[in-house]
Design brief:
mainly alpha; Serine Threonine Protein Phosphatase 5, Tetratricopeptide repeat; 2 domains; 15 helices; 76% helix; 0% strand; elongated
C-alpha cells in the first residue's frame, strides 16, 4: 500500500512539474516577438523609438528572467529595454543581477557604467568601467554563443544588416570605458586622474576627431594651465573645426590670458556652430548602451 501511495505522490509531482513547464513555455511563446529586427534597428538608430514595440520586448525578457532565473542574458536584455523605457533604476538592478550570474561579461559592466554616469553616480561609474577593463573580453563571446535563443538571433541580424560583429562591439566598449572615466573625473573635478585616463586612451587609440585633445584642454584649463589648454584646443579644432565646445573653451582660455580680440572671435564661432548644428555636449552625454 505504501508503495502505491509513494508512486502516486511521485506521479502527482512529476505531472504538476510537467504542467507548470508547459504553461510557462506557452506563456513565453505567446510573448515572444515574431521578429527581432525592430530592437536591432533601434539599437542602431534611436530615432526609431516606439514605446509599445519596446515594451513588448521588455515583457518577454522579464518573463524569461522570472521563469528561468539563472539566465544572465535575460536580465541583461530586460535591463536594456527598461533603460530605454525610462526606468533607469530598475535597469541598474537588472544589470546587477546579470553580473552576479556572469561576472565576466564586458557589456554588463559597460551598460552599468553608462547608467551610473547618467544617474550622476560618478564613483560607481568609474568602478564599473575599471572592472570592465579587467575582464577577459573573449568570455563575452563564449557567453553569447551559449545564448542560443536570446543573444544569437540578435547577433545574426546585426551581422547581416549592418556588418557589426561582437568583436567590434567589444572594441567600442573598451573605448567607451575610457570615455566614461574621463567624463566622470571631469564631473568629480579630479583633473589629475582625468589627464591619466586621457593618456591611457592615447596609448591605444588614434585621436582622429580631436576628442582627446579637447578633453586634455579641458583638464588643463581647470588646472589653470592656460598655455597647454590653448595648445590642446587648437589641436582639437585642427581635426574638427565644428566642435563648438572647443571654440567656447578656447575663448574662455584666451580671455583668461588677456587675448580679448581672439577670445571674442572664438566665442562667435562657438555661438554660430551651436545655433546651426544643435550639437550634443562632449562633456555631458554618456555613450549608448549595447544591446546585451
Amino acid at each position: 500500500m505504501l508503495y502505491i501511495i509513494g508512486f502516486l505522490i511521485i506521479f502527482f509531482f512529476v505531472d504538476v512539474k510537467k504542467a507548470l513547464y508547459q504553461t510557462r513555455l506557452a506563456t513565453l511563446n505567446r510573448l515572444r516577438p515574431e521578429r527581432f529586427d525592430y530592437i536591432v534597428d533601434f539599437d542602431r538608430k534611436k530615432d526609431l523609438y516606439n514605446k509599445e514595440k519596446l515594451d513588448q520586448f521588455r515583457r518577454y525578457y522579464d518573463k524569461v528572467s522570472k521563469f528561468v532565473p539563472d539566465r544572465p542574458d535575460a536580465y541583461g536584455l530586460y535591463g536594456y529595454t527598461l533603460y530605454y523605457l525610462g526606468n533607469q533604476k530598475a535597469a541598474l538592478r537588472a544589470y546587477q543581477e546579470a553580473l552576479e550570474l556572469n561576472p565576466e561579461f564586458i557589456f554588463y559592466y559597460h551598460n552599468l557604467a553608462c547608467i551610473y554616469y547618467e544617474q550622476k553616480e560618478y564613483q560607481a561609474a568609474l568602478e564599473a568601467a575599471r572592472k570592465g577593463l579587467t575582464v577577459d573580453p573573449l568570455m563575452a563571446i563564449e557567453g553569447i554563443k551559449k545564448s542560443v535563443r536570446l543573444y544569437v538571433p540578435l547577433i545574426v541580424i546585426k551581422e547581416n544588416s549592418e556588418k557589426r560583429s561582437v568583436e567590434k562591439d567589444i572594441k567600442k566598449a573598451h573605448y567607451n570605458f575610457y570615455i566614461v572615466s574621463i567624463l566622470s573625473y571631469f564631473h568629480l573635478q579630479d583633473y589629475n586622474n582625468m589627464m591619466k585616463a586621457i593618456a591611457g586612451l592615447r596609448l591605444i587609440y588614434p585621436d582622429s576627431k580631436g576628442y582627446f585633445s579637447f578633453y586634455s584642454g579641458i583638464a588643463a584649463f581647470y588646472q589653470n594651465n592656460y598655455p597647454a589648454a590653448i595648445q590642446e584646443f587648437k589641436a582639437a579644432l585642427e581635426k574638427n573645426g565644428e566642435n563648438y565646445e572647443a571654440w567656447l573653451y578656447l575663448g574662455k582660455t584666451l580671455e583668461k590670458t588677456g587675448n580679448e580680440v581672439y577670445a571674442k572671435n572664438a566665442y562667435q564661432q562657438a555661438e554660430r556652430l551651436k545655433a546651426t548644428a544643435e550639437p550634443s555636449s562632449l562633456l555631458e552625454e554618456p555613450p549608448d548602451l549595447f544591446l546585451y
